[in-house]
Task: structure prediction
Amino acid sequence: MFEIGNSLREARERQGRTFADLERKTEIRTRYLKALEEEQFSLLPAPAYMRGFLRVYADELGLDGQLYVDEFNSRFTVSEAAVSVSQRRERRTPVQTRHSRRIATSAVVISLALIIGVSFLLFAAFTSKSPKADVVNLHPQTTNQEVTRLKITAVRGDVSVDARTGRQNGALIYGGMLIKGHHLSLNSSTIWIRVTAIQNVSWTLAGGTPATAGNRVGPATVLFTPNGPKFLTK
Result:
């Protein structure tokens, strides 16, 4: 067992990295990076995104991202077990009167409704900026342009994806975290893509043709056209 936040902070300070640089490289907002270092996990989105952010941030600092995810999972599981034990102890308390039980039940129902409502609003706000994986994203095409059809699959781990039409400042097609085992299908005449960990993804063009990334690792920028991929400099 080790301290997740202190370990990340020490690695960042030892390398002289700034949050601005790390936000640009990982495409994770600074406030989330700081929350990871301070272990304020309640400030982060849903657990699936927390694990993705933790893995990407640790990998970018040259650490073992999977080790940090495993440590987070072990703490999260312990927390759930503690809640379960607490609930069982509560069931052993003396029997309350009917009136007091009705009041307690009503308070629990109201609290649960409020929690569910707030969680739904937070999740909706976050996912509005990060579209779900496995969704086909279509960009309007003109009739005289050949279409590039691309499928991206996260095969070795989570990866942050920024996909745009034509160039870096083109219209956004997809922006967010692609979870391991999920995929995206993107259509446009030309597709500009930046990923935080190219070794974690596989690319397939129309007709099932694979697009190899060779031995490349870490952040990468790729331009896809109907003629195939072109790997750009960082």
User: Anything to note?
Assistant: Helices lie at 4-15, 19-26, 30-37, 47-60, 65-91, 98-127. The first strand starts at residue 136 and ends at 138. The radius of gyration is 22 Å. The beta strands are 136-138, 148-154, 159-165, 172-178, 183-188, 191-195, 201-205, 209-211, 220-225, 228-232.
